[in-house]
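Try it yourself: sequence plus magnesium ion, in.
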Amino acid sequence: MAIAEAPAAVAAPVASPGIVEITGLRKRFGSNEVLKGVDLSVKRGEVIVIIGKSGSGKSTLLRCVNGLEVFDEGSLHVDGQPLLHGNVAAMRALRQDVGMIFQNFNLFPHLSVGRNVMLAPSLVKKRPGPAGVEQAKRLLARVGLAEKFDAQPDQLSGGQQQRVAIARALAMEPAVLLCDEITSALDPELVGEVLRVVESLADEGMTLMMVTHEMNFARKVADRVVFMHAGRIHEIGPPEQLFGSPQTAELKQFLSAVH
Ligand code: ADP
Ligand code: MG
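Structure, out:
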């Protein structure tokens, strides 16, 4: 009996995986479940702005992505690599791929600005002296601080220190940059200079996941806005959708409170 030849397998178009793939992510602190199943796929070059009230799990989510928190369930991939706690080589690779900037700059106070930017690559990437200096100068120029290479952190304003922190994160050439309320500790007049640097990174194609209360920035720069509520992604979509036609009572209430 002739058997009909099976049609040649046609490769199904596989949606290209995100640079950050978060699936079913759960995180508990004791009996307090802080992330209750988060799914998010971030495309290369995408700018994700995360909003939501205090305690909704925004920082914990970012801290899971760069391996600062051990999650309980689900999976997390960065640039195709699974985040495996306990696997030293995998965690080291992750730390190089994921940069993070915090509210309080966290510069090394005893090191010059240039040394702050050069430290991690000199330790991890074994970038030799002159190349490291050149890279640090280029990155400081990129954040508008070319002339501050030899300054000490405490000689700089908060906005300048935060821009150094951005340059320091970029020195590791991360695939993704996480920003957790990076303008919240700044005097209002210094917020703009930091946001302009972040916007320029976005324009240059950097993948960003950014927690912020700066709604105007979110409107202007985000590709998608994530509204976190009680440990879940409660709404997600382009800024015009989330800000223009919020669907849930929780988001409506949040937006009326921040405006
Ligand atoms: P957000 O950044 O949205 O304000 P967080 O992710 O910081 O929220 O916190 C979410 C919840 O997790 C809060 O209830 C907070 O108290 C709790 N939490 C965060 N970090 C810890 C920790 N290290 N130990 C215990 N509870 C924590
Ligand atoms: Mg937070």
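One thing you can check immediately is this: Strands lie at 20-29, 32-42, 47-51, 73-78, 81-82, 98-101, 176-180, 207-211, 224-229, 232-237.
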